[in-house]
């Protein structure tokens, strides 16, 4: 998840919020990936249930609208090798997640959609090391309502 998170950071997650509301685009979550349900991954929610996600030309498109991603640097944009071959339409309780280090991330482009029941919680704050302490807030997307 570079550059948003670094190795050896201790991240506190919130497991309660998603019992009261649905996960939102841009939130960074901890979940069990379909490729290894005993493991924990940390990725950003990109696509929500019912949406169609396309990754092409270094950009993500949601329902054919380019997604503004202010948390990505130019170096972390998707290269041609990491584009989706076909758009993916998400079903109910399905999410599309991606790492912020797009060219070095095992995410929904590789193993498909993430079922809602595999989400453990959303990241809340970085606790350690103390000089990197901060609360984690999702971005505001320019083209979101």
Instruction: Assign an overall shape.
Output: globular
The CATH topology is Umud Fragment, subunit A
Oligomer state of the chains in this structure: single chain
Helix share, percent? under 10%
Mean pLDDT, rounded to whole units? 87
Number of helices: 2
CATH superfamily: Umud Fragment, subunit A
Unreliable residue runs: none
**Helix and strand element order:** EHEEEEEEEHEEE
Cα gyration radius (Å): 15 Å
Total domain units? 1
Q: Give the total of beta strands.
A: 11
* Helix-strand category: mainly beta
Major β-sheet, in short? Answer: 7 strands, antiparallel
What amount of the residues lies in strands?
25-35%
N-C termini distance: 26 Å
CATH class: Mainly Beta
CATH architectural category: Ribbon
Q: What's this, in brief?
A:
By secondary structure, the chain is mainly beta.
Question: Can you offer a commentary on this structure?
Answer:
There is one protein chain. With 145 residues, this protein is mainly beta. It has a single domain, classed as Umud Fragment, subunit A, CATH 2.10.109.10. It has two helices and eleven strands, in the order E-H-E-E-E-E-E-E-E-H-E-E-E. The strands form two sheets. Strands 1, 2, 3, 8, 9, 10 and 11 form a seven-stranded antiparallel sheet that branches. The chain has a four-stranded antiparallel sheet with strand order 6-5-4-7, with no helix packed on it. Strand 4 and strand 5 form a beta hairpin. The two termini are 26 Å apart. The mean pLDDT is 87.
Write the layout of secondary structure elements.
Blueprint: E1 10-14, H1 17-20, E2 28-31, E3 41-47, E4 52-56, E5 59-62, E6 65-66, E7 88-89, E8 94-98, H2 108-111, E9 114-115, E10 119-128, E11 134-135
Antiparallel strand pairs: 1-10, 2-3, 2-10, 3-8, 4-5, 4-7, 5-6, 8-9, 10-11
């Amino acid at each position: 998840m570079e550059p948003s998170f670094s190795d050896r950071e201790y991240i506190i997650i919130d497991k309660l919020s998603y019992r009261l509301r649905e996960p939102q685009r841009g939130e960074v979550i901890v979940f069990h990936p379909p490729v290894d349900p005993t493991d924990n991954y940390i990725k950003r929610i990109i696509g929500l249930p019912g949406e169609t996600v396309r990754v092409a030309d270094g950009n993500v498109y949601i329902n054919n609208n380019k997604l503004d991603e202010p948390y990505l640097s130019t170096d972390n944009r998707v290269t041609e090798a990491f584009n989706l071959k076909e758009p993916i339409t998400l079903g109910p309780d399905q999410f599309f997640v991606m790492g912020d280090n797009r060219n070095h991330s095992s995410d929904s482009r590789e193993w498909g959609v993430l079922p809602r029941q595999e989400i453990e919680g959303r990241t809340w704050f970085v606790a350690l090391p103390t000089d990197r302490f901060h609360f984690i807030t999702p971005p505001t997307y320019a083209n979101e309502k």
